[in-house]
Write a structure and sequence with these properties.
This protein has 515 residues and is of the alpha+beta class. The chain has 3 domains: 275 residues, BirA Bifunctional Protein, domain 2 (2-Layer Sandwich); 103 residues, no CATH class; 120 residues, 3-Layer(aba) Sandwich (Rossmann fold). It is 42% helix and 24% strand. The protein has 18 helices and 23 strands. Strands 3-9-10-16-13-12-11 form a 7-stranded mixed β-sheet. The protein has a 5-stranded mixed β-sheet with strand order 20-19-21-22-23, sandwiched between helices. α5 packs antiparallel against α7 and α7 packs antiparallel against α8. The longest helix has 27 residues. The chain is globular. It starts with a helix and ends with a helix. The structure holds adenosine-5'-triphosphate (ATP). Adenosine-5'-triphosphate (ATP) binds next to β10, β13, β16 and α13.
Length: 515
């Protein structure tokens, strides 16, 4: 764990040092859980966005995109349930003065039971070998059963308390399960409080006419309220989807873990409208499409897992998270939810406007059901960095820090390096750069030794470096260096464009996704 936390620390300082992420308003000592993306960060982020956007809107002829406003009519948040229910329950430890979300404390306790169960299963697998039947074992082993039951009982009590909005009971659970503060190790807890996560501001110029409006806590509602606009103007037929990328804001209480939990962040959401009754089939399909989208990046298949929701939100009839193995454990990066017709029905109720679709195939009007895929761009960004960061030990005991980014996502694709600062080399290098820059983000660098320049490019994840030397002038050849293997090859200038573009284009990812 210590090692893993160190990795996060290293990553945060790497991001700062190489222009990926800066603390926002840094010269004023920063602003809690708000971050700015630097020159390389924005490149990586834009590439992730493009991968997502193109995978939705190019590969699916029945998915289109929109860009709705951040400010929306306040009644939207009443209809969506956010005004009444978008809250966290908090508790403070009086000794450490640290604040916790109740659900996080409970989740940690449940993880303890899970760990005990998996440890027992592991032991038994080793003992019984090939003959081991995990399902039967879990049904019979007393220790496993005891922990499964404890887990279930805790979950049931917790969800009951949430449903009843029973703050006293939530606190009692913390005491009954002897949950202590991870820092002070005491159970000296305050009472539990409820806290709405939406930011609000005022719109209007005079005090009489101002109205309270919210900064959207999710982009999805902008899609729901435009559902009919898009359906009619785009002549869309069910099933169809609407995709959107945009900022969302949540006044997170416990904002830690770098860009994993921010107060201002970006979401990439797609709502897929289907015939009632067909939603679970589509839910399964989208689960598979989305996990494939992640795995194609080759950050390691074992770093992903699904975590199905046991307790569903009142509007959902199936939900799962795609989790990624962060340095602080497996954490949600994307949610896939079958949201039924809850949102459209509620907007119909609150706005008085019909939100139905006439399905000519079955000659019937209905409110479509919705499958949502919702991914946090910043969490995705973090997962890509975590999966790519590497400290390679080289010969002579040297190390190099390299971001083994999927080439299609790298912010800079090509480093262009004249071997020495000789006028002819520099001129030739510029000539090559002028050609390549029309297609790829290139970086020209003539300062310091070639080794140092390679390291600089490694640190930002540039997949190719091209060196211009006497060979280039005499034989129109450059040496191309591959980031991960550090192998170098002499190739003709005329082949450069092809070699690079085959590997760094978003298209290369889309092709695999479409197979
Ligand atoms: P969590 O339980 O971690 O708070 P959530 O279940 O509330 O997340 P959703 O409402 O399902 O998250 O939002 C969809 C996606 O938006 C999440 O999977 C995550 O990637 C992203 N997201 C949510 N909150 C934040 C945040 N504060 N900072 C960065 N990304 C976020």
């Amino acid at each position: 764990m210590m090692f893993q936390e160190n990795i996060l620390k290293k990553l945060i300082s790497h991001c700062k040092k190489y222009g990926f992420v800066f603390p926002s308003s840094e010269i004023y000592d920063g602003l809690g859980a708000i971050y700015d993306y630097g020159q390389n960060g924005v490149g990586l982020k834009n590439n992730i966005k493009q991968y997502w956007w193109d995978s939705m809107t190019l590969l699916n002829e029945n998915i289109v995109g929109i860009d709705s406003a951040i400010f929306m009519h306040p009644t939207i948040w009443k209809a969506s349930g956010h005004v009444d229910a978008f809250s966290d329950y908090l508790i403070d430890n009086k000794d450490s003065k640290k604040r916790y979300r109740i659900d996080t404390l409970i989740e940690n306790q449940i993880t303890k039971y899970d760990n005990k169960i998996s440890k027992e299963i592991k032991k038994a697998t080793k003992y019984f070998g090939d003959a081991f039947d995990e399902i039967e074992f879990c049904k019979k082993d007393l220790y496993v059963l005891e922990n499964i039951n404890k887990k279930k009982a805790l979950y049931a009590r917790f969800t009951q308390a949430l449903m009843e909005n029973n703050l006293k009971e939530l606190r009692q659970i913390i005491f009954d399960y002897k949950i202590v503060c991870p820092i002070s190790k005491t159970n000296n807890w305050t009472c539990v409080r409820k806290f709405n996560l939406m930011f609000s501001t005022e719109m209007g110029s005079t005090t009489d006419s101002t109205i309270k409006i919210y900064l959207r806590p999710e982009t999805a509602q902008g899609i729901f309220v435009n559902f009919l606009n898009v359906q009619k103007t785009g002549r869309m037929k069910i099933p169809f989807g609407i995709a959107q990328i945009g900022k969302a804001f949540r006044n997170e209480i416990i904002a830690r873990q770098f860009v994993f939990r921010m107060r201002e962040f970006e979401q990439m959401e797609m709502q897929f409208f289907v015939r009632p009754g067909e939603e679970l089939e589509w839910f399964e399909k989208w689960k598979q499409v989305r996990i494939k989208w992640h795995k194609i990046l080759e950050l390691g298949d074992n770093k992903y897992r699904f975590r199905d929701h046991i307790k569903l939100a009142h509007y959902a009839n199936a939900a799962t998270d795609i989790e990624f193995e962060m340095p602080f454990g497996f954490k949600e990066i994307e949610g896939i939810h079958s949201r039924t017709n809850f949102d459209l029905n509620n907007h119909e109720k609150y706005s008085g406007k019909r939100m139905q679709f006439f399905d000519s195939k079955i000659n019937k009007s209905y409110t479509p059901f919705v499958i949502e895929t919702s991914i946090g761009l910043d969490r995705m960004f973090l997962s890509v960095l975590v999966g790519s960061y590497s400290e390679d030990v080289l010969r002579e005991g040297n190390t190099r820090v390299v971001l083994k980014l999927p080439p299609a996502l790298s912010p800079v694709k090509v480093g262009i390096l004249p071997l020495i600062k000789k006028e002819e080399f520099k001129k030739k290098a510029r000539e090559i750069m002028n050609k390549l820059k029309l297609n790829f983000c290139c970086q020209y660098d003539e300062k310091d030794s070639i080794g140092k320049r390679y390291r600089r490019q490694d640190a930002i994840g540039t997949p190719y470096c091209i060196t211009i030397d006497q060979n280039t002038l005499d034989y129109h050849q450059v040496s191309i260096r591959f980031r991960d293997t550090m192998r170098q090859e002499h190739i003709s200038i005329s082949c450069l464009e092809q070699i690079i573009s085959d590997n760094v284009s978003i298209k290369s990812l889309l092709k695999k996704l479409d197979e």
